[in-house]
Design a protein that fits this description.
The protein contains ten helices and ten strands. With 342 residues, the protein is of the alpha+beta class. It folds into three domains: 4-118, Beta-Lactamase (2-Layer Sandwich), CATH 3.30.450.20; 120-199; 204-342, Heat Shock Protein 90 (2-Layer Sandwich), CATH 3.30.565.10. Strand 6, helix 9 (241-261) and strand 7 form a beta-alpha-beta unit. Helix 5 (120-167) runs antiparallel to helix 6 (171-199) and helix 5 packs across helix 10 (297-311). The longest helix is centred in the middle third of the chain and has 48 residues, at 120-167. The two termini are 45 Å apart. The relative contact order is 0.07.
């Protein structure tokens, strides 16, 4: 038979935050996970209304829901539970899912056992998935335009030039036409290589992060006349494949934003490795922007960079202001060989 201490151990060992709430909505007990999740001490929460853990704006709605549940209590599994914003002691909120289970405890009094699960990571993955789907669709449209507007037109032009070359009788004109065909073919090949690098940079496999970024910066200068002053060294080899690709895409996006929006012709990029973290810093002296007023794709771009970093345990910090330039700092932790952060 399990003893009371055994039940207490199970209660505390739950991976979810657990609260025992009485019929009046007062917290009677909580486990260690609840203390860690919400940041309050046991003494601060025991005897408090459960609404203390809910943002002020939701108090009235939650009390009404709690009263309705008390009229007809029944188990509510986690998968079918309530998705709410929970309030931490420091004032921050976290998305949670809550399951409810009515039980008679303490001399037969009605209580509700609440299991609270932090779903921040799940929501982040879902949001990123949505952005990745949108980005993939945008990339398909981009490829379609590139193939039609550039490569298809180039191939049509080449077909015409080859026909004219075959019909040309003048030796000098034929040589000039042949040289033009060769130049057009060279330009088309370079364009295809540029597209391939944009889709899946082979330099990441062959030369590592520094080499791949260097190739991106050269392409940007060739196509847009935008110069990237880079200090890359050989940083990046400490990262695993997923973290390397995440940092590569973040830098690519940040530099692309500078090209499109900064209103200047150059930026600086540095890679540094220190204290178990690889950090990329992208800085331009351009027009800057108001982060709260970024329209459309700008918000998606910034959110996408942050989500990519978060999924590998990193972060992205953006410092900018109108006419004050922009600095993007992306940090990704190094993984040791046994899978723990370096």
């Amino acid at each position: 038979m399990l003893t009371q201490s055994d039940y207490t151990a199970v209660f505390d060992a739950s991976p979810d935050a657990m609260l025992v709430v009485d019929a009046d909505g007062v917290i009677q007990d909580l486990n260690r996970q609840a203390i860690a999740m919400f940041g309050w001490s046991r003494e601060e929460l025991e005897g408090s209304e459960v609404e203390r853990l809910i943002p002020d704006a939701s108090h009235g709605r939650h009390r009404r829901h709690r009263r309705r549940y008390g009229e007809s209590p029944q188990p509510r599994p986690m998968g079918e539970g309530l998705e709410l914003e929970a309030l931490r002691k420091d004032g921050t909120t976290i998305p949670v899912e809550i399951s409810l289970s009515p039980s008679k405890l303490g001399r037969g009094r009605e209580h509700v056992i609440c299991a609270v699960r932090d779903i921040s990571s799940w929501k982040r993955v879902r949001r990123l998935s949505g952005m990745l789907v949108a980005a993939a669709e945008q990339e398909r449209k981009h490829l379609s335009r590139e193939l039609h507007d550039e490569f298809l037109q180039n191939l049509v032009a080449l077909k015409i030039r080859v026909k004219l070359l075959a019909d040309e009788r003048d030796d000098g004109a034929r040589e000039r036409a042949r040289a033009q065909v060769a130049e057009d073919i060279r330009g088309t090949i370079l364009g295809v290589k540029r597209m391939i690098r944009g889709l899946l940079p082979p330099e990441l496999d062959h030369g590592g992060l520094s080499s791949a970024l260097g190739s991106v910066f050269r392409d940007i200068e060739d196509v847009y006349g935008f110069t990237v002053h880079a200090s890359l060294g050989r940083v990046g080899g400490e990262l695993d494949e997923v973290a390397t690709l995440a940092l590569y895409r973040i830098v690519q996006e940040a530099v692309g934003n500078a090209v499109r929006h900064a209103g200047v012709s150059e930026a600086t990029v540095t890679l540094e490795s220190a204290n178990g973290t690889v950090t990329a810093t992208i800085r331009d002296e351009g027009c800057g922007f108001d982060t709260e007023g970024v329209p459309g794709d700008g918000c998606v771009g910034l959110a996408g960079m942050r989500e990519r970093a978060a999924l590998v345990g990193g972060s992205v910090v953006v410092q900018t202001s109108p006419d004050g330039g922009t600095t993007v700092r992306a940090s990704v932790p190094v993984q040791s060989t046994d899978g723990r952060n370096g």
